[in-house]
Amino acid sequence: MTTPPADRAAQPAFPTTTPAVSAPNGAAAARAVGATKVYGSGETAVRALDEVTVEFPGGRFTTIMGPSGSGKSTLLHCVAGLDTLTSGRVWIGEVELGALSDKQLTVLRRERVGFVFQSYNLLPTLTALENITLPLLIFADEPTGNLDSRAGAELLDFLRRAVRELGQTIVMVTHDPVAAGYADTALFLADGRIVDWMDKPTSQRVLDRIKALGE
Ligand code: ADP
Ligand code: MG
């Protein structure tokens, strides 16, 4: 492991440079180690993420589940480079986001990351499909939240095909067990921590697990 150079301005512009710090496991499309995010300070501080260590394997469809306020969006935004951590480290591929300048981060987001927001349904379907066939990575936050069940199933089926047929990597936040059933792996978040995970989730098993976690 190397440490980031003291003088960042001396680095050539991304992506021609080797990242200052490499992830130990290059196979992960994205990963976080000790990811902590605190909003605000003093008595009103909210610990939205609490020392989360997680790896999102390439070519897999991972879903992040958990109750409202458990930190799902915060985790997704921090791993996608849309927001910064209070402490801890995040990599996209082998690039550590904390080692990048704002400009380098913008380039990386533009070239390697696709983000599907809940307002996805405001876009024509074709635009959405084009958006997600380009980047290596796709992060989706409640992408079916505003869709009717048929449009939601279409989008989920498309995401699953993008993984199986195109080798895309997808990380999707949802609180819908049916949507989670399309993923290869489900992570369960509570109070800013990963409390459980499940391989090959089905909607019924996800429902059962959520019930068990709530008890
Ligand atoms: P989820 O997506 O699971 O509903 P979030 O990641 O949006 O949860 O939020 C996690 C916690 O962080 C919540 O308590 C939320 O109120 C708080 N939070 C999220 N964003 C902000 C913000 N910009 N400022 C202050 N608190 C925030
Ligand atoms: Mg959210």
Task: Describe this protein's structure.
This protein has a single domain (13-214), classed as P-loop containing nucleotide triphosphate hydrolases (Rossmann fold, 3-Layer(aba) Sandwich). The protein is an alpha/beta fold and 215 residues long. Strand 1 (28-39) and strand 2 form a beta hairpin. The protein has helices spanning 72-79, 102-112, 125-133, 149-166, 177-180, 203-214; strands at residues 28-39, 46-57, 61-65, 87-92, 95-96, 113-116, 137-141, 169-173, 185-190, 193-199. The protein has 6 helices and 10 strands; from the N terminus they run βββαββαβαβαβαββα. The chain binds adenosine-5'-diphosphate and magnesium ion.
List keywords for this structure.
6-stranded mixed sheet; binds adenosine-5'-diphosphate; 6 helices; 30% strand; binds magnesium ion; alpha/beta; single chain; 215 residues; Rossmann fold
Helix content: 25-40%
CATH top level label? Alpha Beta
CATH topology: Rossmann fold
Largest sheet: 6 strands, mixed
Low-confidence stretches: 1-26
Q: How many E-type strands?
A: 10
Assign an overall shape.
globular
Are any ligands bound, and if so which?
adenosine-5'-diphosphate, magnesium ion
If classified by CATH, what would the architecture be?
Answer: 3-Layer(aba) Sandwich
Contiguous helical run count: 6
What is the CA-based Rg, rounded?
17 Å
The CATH homology group name: P-loop containing nucleotide triphosphate hydrolases
Number of domains: 1
Strand order of the largest sheet: 6-7-8-3-9-10
Described by its quaternary structure, the protein is single chain
Q: What's the order of the H and E elements?
A: EEEHEEHEHEHEHEEH
